[in-house]
Amino acid sequence: MFRTSLRSSINVLHRSAPSTLLKSRLTAYRYLSDEARSRIQTAVKANPVVLFMKGTPAEPQCGFSRAVVQILDLHGVPPEKLQTYNVLADQELRNGIKEFSEWPTIPQVYVNGEFVGGCDILIGMHQSGELETLLENNGVIPKIEAESTAEKATA
Amino acid sequence: MPIDTIALEKAIKRAIPVTHLEIEDQSSGCGESYAIVLVSDAFEKKTTLQRHRMVNELLKDQIAQMHAFSQKTYTPKQYEDLQTRMS
């Protein structure tokens, strides 16, 4: 959805750019090349859950990234369904993902190619139960029927 | 130039109606890390993601200069409920 809106806004910019000078400036402004964009497009769909973070799950380099790793772990997201990218190891990705998602900060979480949010949103959704529902509905974790309430009550 | 709380407050209040605003500098004064709690009518009928996008957009220039930015967004009604539950 945001991609279409981004595209259309870029089209508007280009249409309203009369001189080549302005045009080249705008192109520079939109530094996310088509190649980088398609690379990220592939990356966000690499697995049902994709996390762009600072560091790795074993060694997060930032508290916000660590928190998201812990939340995903808490919900039992299986490793084979989770793909993480260390943006600190890839400067192009670090900048590109911010523009791609239109989101200014890292970490960022995608589920089945859809942007979910950053750390604040993940924590909020974890607390409200929305995250569990989202992961279940996307087939990331198995649905647990009535017995889950019993489990929660004893936990 | 480091971002100060006043600049953040101004940018927010200029853009949307604010019922309640807390800005916490978590960087010990270097202006690198902020956490805000923002209560506004503007969040009515918007998902959390939409609210955060809205705040990200209106603080775009400031957030670009920070290391970390954390936000909690509530409608006046939600915030009231939250206060009641916590008391």
Set down the secondary structure blueprint.
The complex is a heterodimer of chains A (155) and B (87).
Chain A: H1 2-15, H2 20-29, H3 34-44, E1 49-53, H4 63-74, E2 82-86, H5 91-101, E3 108-111, E4 114-117, H6 119-128, H7 130-137, H8 147-154
Parallel strand pairs in A: 1-2
Antiparallel strand pairs in A: 1-3, 3-4
Helix pairs in contact in A: 3-5, 4-6
Chain B: H1 5-15, E1 20-25, E2 33-39, H2 48-58, H3 60-64, E3 68-74, H4 76-86
Parallel strand pairs in B: 2-3
Antiparallel strand pairs in B: 1-2
DSSP helix fraction of chain A: 40-55%
Q: Please give the number of β-strands of chain B.
A: 3
- By secondary-structure content and strand pairing, the structural class of chain B works out as alpha+beta
Overall form of chain B: globular
Count interface residues per chain for the largest interface.
Answer: A-B, 14 and 13 residues
Straight-line N-to-C gap of chain B: 40 Å
Shape summary of chain A: globular
Order of helical and strand elements of chain A: HHHEHEHEEHHH
State the end-to-end distance of chain A: 39 Å
**Strands side by side in the biggest sheet of chain A:** 2-1-3-4
Number of helices of chain A: 8
Number of separate helices of chain B: 4
Strand content of chain B: 15-25%
Low-pLDDT parts of chain B are none
Largest sheet of chain B: 3 strands, mixed
Our estimate of the beta-strand percent of chain A is 5-15%
Question: If you average the pLDDT of chain B, what whole number results?
Answer: 92
Q: Name the assembly state.
A: heterodimer
Order of helices and strands of chain B: HEEHHEH
- Give the helix level of chain B as a range of percent: 40-55%
Q: C-alpha Rg of chain B, in Å?
A: 13 Å
